[in-house]
Structure formats: structure tokens, C-alpha cells
TrEMBL record:
NCBIfam families: anchor_synt_D (NF038088), PRK05305.2-3 (NF003683)
Organism of origin: Halanaeroarchaeum sulfurireducens
Bilayer-spanning residue ranges: none
Name listed for the protein in its UniProt record: Phosphatidylserine decarboxylase
This protein's encoding gene: psd
Highest rank taxon of the organism: Archaea
């Protein structure tokens, strides 16, 4: 099983605590080991097979935001605790800028989450925004300015709950969007819009 970078740093203390826990009490040891297993499972990073066309989802989850913002369209994906939290690039392109914005930590499925801590990844034609939820406190970028990526490549992950938004290119209208609110999508595979 592939894991997001840094996962072992989170799981190792729990594994060490389980060893000590088993010495003191089998119940405590089992509880710490179960938590370690949950951390590993949460940070799983399965391979994906991107299509050769279209704009794909940056995240696994449900479409929670679909709205026009000025001349552009925003599509947001809410990642439930059971979803894979590794994020992927929607189209081929070069990362122009990575911009971290501090903020609140409200639930990622609410309107108030627009003021949460977030990370903007600017590409030639679109922007992906990774938004921390109320429990998520860690956004990890796997790319930096100048990196050339293909559709579906990994761009980062968010630990423990979140949302990923795509501000689509100006050439993409609401009529080009292929998903609706509530639809389930898979990062790097589900086409959310065409041109």
C-alpha cells in the first residue's frame, strides 16, 4: 500500500506507544495499535488511471460547491474521513505559484470554510485550492513553482478532513461542467469538466 509522504512520522509514535501499552495493559496496547492502523489507512495513496482528456477531480469525495465566480466556475470536493486525501492535478500544466493563506478551521462542508486555512496552487489556466477542515490542521504540498505535471499527478494531501476546489479556466462555462452537487468523484480519474 502506498502512503502519503510523512505518514510514518504520524504513525510511529502510536506504534511505539502500543508496545509500551501492551506491557502495561493489553487494552491500551490494542487501542494504540488500532489508532496507528487508522492513521496508516487514512493516508493511503492508491494509484489512479487518469483519462487522456478533460479536467479531472483534484480529490476523492462529493461535489459540495458548484458556482460561478465572476467569469469563472468553481467546483469544490468535500473529502469525508473515509475518502483518500491525496490530491491530484486536474490538467497537465506547470505550477506557477504555491500560496499558503492562514485562516480559521471551520467544517470544510460549510460556507464559513471559505475563510479556512488554505493552500492555492496556481497553474497556467486554473487554480487548485486545498482547504483545511475543522479537524484538519496540516496541508502538505508535494509540488513547487516550476514543476511540470501531467493530468492526475499528485500535488499534495491534507491530513484529517478537508476540501479541494478548482477554479476552472475562463474558457470553461457551467455548460461544460460534467458533475452536479452531491456526485461522488475520484481524484485524477473523474472528469468534472470539458472544454
Amino acid at each position: 500500500m502506498h502512503l502519503a509522504p510523512g505518514t510514518w512520522r504520524l504513525a510511529a509514535p502510536l506504534i511505539a506507544a502500543s508496545v509500551l501499552g501492551f506491557i502495561l495493559s493489553p487494552l491500551w496496547g490494542a487501542a494504540a495499535l488500532a489508532l496507528a492502523a487508522l492513521v496508516l489507512w487514512f493516508h493511503r495513496d492508491p494509484n489512479r488511471n487518469p483519462p487522456d482528456h478533460g479536467i479531472v477531480s483534484p480529490a476523492d469525495g462529493r461535489i459540495s460547491v458548484l458556482r460561478r465566480e465572476g467569469e469563472r466556475v468553481r467546483v469544490g470536493v468535500f473529502m469525508n474521513v473515509t475518502d483518500v486525501h491525496v490530491n491530484r492535478t486536474p490538467i497537465p500544466g506547470t505550477v506557477r505559484e504555491v500560496d499558503h493563506v492562514p485562516g480559521a478551521n471551520r467544517p470544510a462542508f460549510t460556507k464559513g470554510s471559505d475563510r479556512n486555512e488554505r493552500l492555492h496552487l496556481h497553474f497556467d489556466e486554473l487554480r487548485v485550492t486545498l482547504i483545511a477542515g475543522w479537524f484538519a490542521r496540516r496541508i502538505h504540498a508535494h509540488v513547487g513553482p516550476g514543476d511540470r505535471l501531467e493530468r492526475g499527478d499528485r500535488i499534495g494531501h491534507i491530513s484529517f478532513g478537508s476540501r479541494a476546489d478548482v477554479l476552472l479556466p475562463e474558457s470553461v462555462s457551467l455548460e461544460n461542467v460534467r458533475v452536479e452537487k452531491g456526485d461522488r468523484v475520484r481524484a485524477g480519474e473523474t472528469i468534472i469538466a470539458t472544454r
